[in-house]
Amino acid sequence: MPLSQHHIRTTVDAYLARRADEREQLGVLLDALDRTGVDIASRSTFTGHVTCSAIVVDQLGRVLHVLHLASGKVLAPGGHTEPTDDSLATVALRELHEETGIPPRAVTAWPGYETVPLDIDIHDIDAHPGKGEAGHQHFDLRFLFRLHTSTEVPVVLQEEEVGGIEWRPVDRVTSPTLREKLLKLPLQVEPETANASALIYNDRGEYLLHLRDYFPGQIWEPGMWSLLGGGREPQDAALEQTVRRELAEEAGLDLTGLAPFGTEYATDDAGATVPIAIYAGRWNGDPRELHLTEGVMLAWFAPSDLHRLRIADTTSDLIRRHAASNPAMQSGPEPEEERLASPHGTVPNIIGVHLYLERPDGTVLLGLRHPNSAFAPSTWHVLAGHCEQENAIACLIREAQEEAGLQIERQDVELVHVVHHIDKPRNPPRMGLFFRARTWRGEPTLREPDKCLQWRFWDPAALPDDLVPYTRLAIAKIQSGELYSETGWPA
After folding, report:
1. Contact 323, 242 (CB under 8 A)
2. Cα 50 to chain center, whole Å?
3. Alpha-carbon gap, residue 359 to 352, rounded angstroms
């Protein structure tokens, strides 16, 4: 699956959190990320698209450069994304291997830069009429790696694209912005072994924690609650693959939406500082149904419960920071004391995204919500969710995959109805966007049994009695071709 706009945006945001002074010069990239329906991961997007480069430093502190035959320039190895790439860092590693023959296992991500580029450069590319390519811009994300092998690495050049390689001292790095940043790093210092962990949360604002075995002297943090994760192994091309492998090995868990959150630093039993790349992802399953191969158990905990646990301060601080940065994680109604009281001023409207899935026979997909749901328990409803830091269609595609295992493409989605509704006068108003998927892949499956008990296609003329009222209204309006409705507002 192609790299998502959300993954690219999250990576750029993490970079700007460190380099806020570069926000203005990266304005054209930020504008491209904000444009709806534009895939900046695709090399056929000639308004500008993403490329990735591998900045590789050897044991002597020299930086790898290659001669690109097409441009005649000496640059770091790098290139365009491919549909098979699962992260931006993976793009850089793949290009390194293709252009020079250096395998991903021969390098290690630089501590603190496992998921965040060292530099982002925007440069113009000339038109190539013979290839049907218009002039455009490259948004080049440059990831930093250390050549960690002590033996000679065989170089196999991609002869049709690369004319040779050169290891240059930092003061001769061709890119001025990259050279400036590299000069500030202690390049002669061997980095620590890379680790990666998963910060998994659900719609209730709880976090999945792993109770480790109590084997003092044999494992790290024995008998403590921690995140799932572990150390990079030679077969891991990037740290995202490390965390995915660890999730599968430790708990049989496969998450579709992991995104880099940052880098944390822990202290091991020997007192050494260990960098840990953190990937955040949402999951609403039951941990009791997972096959745990290490540790004692998995359980959900709210941030307010962490003080009761035997847990490292760095882990609890990380969870609280993530929770503070995601105030909209809770999917249920807001507590009474937090609701907006004044109906006269400007108030935020909550955006809900809904999937209207109609089969060729005219039946419509509904799900029966769990009895413990904060909203509409034991009631039928369309597949729906709240927008996070994402656009509405991206939210729809994510929710369809996470809740029902359905694969939907952006070009197959159309807006068919908007309902502006409110439950009670003091509740925050909500804007419900109903999107039709013209085509999709897969059959609805229960991916989040703590939210939905079953999926079923219903005849619109014989909908269930226990159906969310505004959903019933929206289905009727969609059937009659009406785009907008209101409900719950005082007369």
Report:
1. no
2. 16
3. 23
Integer Cα distance of 77 and 340 in angstroms: 53
Residue 20 has a CB neighbour count (10 Å cut-off) of 9
pLDDT digits (tens, 9 = 90+) for 449-469: 878 889 999 999 999 999 999
Whether the model pTM is above 0.70: no
Residue entry with tokens 């990831």: 143
Question: Which secondary structure element, helix H or strand E, spans residue 196, and what is its range?
Answer: strand 195-201
Q: What residue has token string 């192609």?
A: 2
* pLDDT, tens only, 175-214: 999 999 999 887 654 444 468 899 999 988 999 999 988 8
CA 381 – CA 488 distance, rounded (Å): 17
Tokens of 160: 């049709």
DSSP assignment of 104-157, as one string? GGGEEEPTT-SSS-SEEEEEEE--BGGGTB--EEEEEEEEEEEE--SSPPP---
Q: Give the up-direction half-sphere exposure of residue 263: CA atoms within 13 A in the CB hemisphere.
A: 21
> Measuring CA to CA, which residue among 214, 225, 285 is closest to residue 255?
285
Strand pairing class (136-147; 49-57): parallel
Cβ burial 459-481 (10 Å sphere, 16+ → b, else e): eeeebeeebbebbbbbbebbeee
Contact of 287 with 298, CB cutoff 8 Å: yes
What are the percentages of helix, strand and coil residues in the chain, rounded to 5?
A: 25, 30, 45
From 453, 448, 403, select the one nearest 284 (Cα to Cα): 448
DSSP string, 359-411: -TTS-EEEEEE-TT-SSSTT-EE-EEEE--SS-HHHHHHHHHHHHH--B--GG
CB-based contact 405:445 (threshold 8 Å) = yes
Question: For residue 290, what is the enclosing H or E element?
Answer: none
Q: What percent of the chain has pLDDT over 70?
A: 89
Gyration radius of the chain's alpha carbons: 25
**Are the CB atoms for 230 and 195 separated by under 8 Å?**
yes
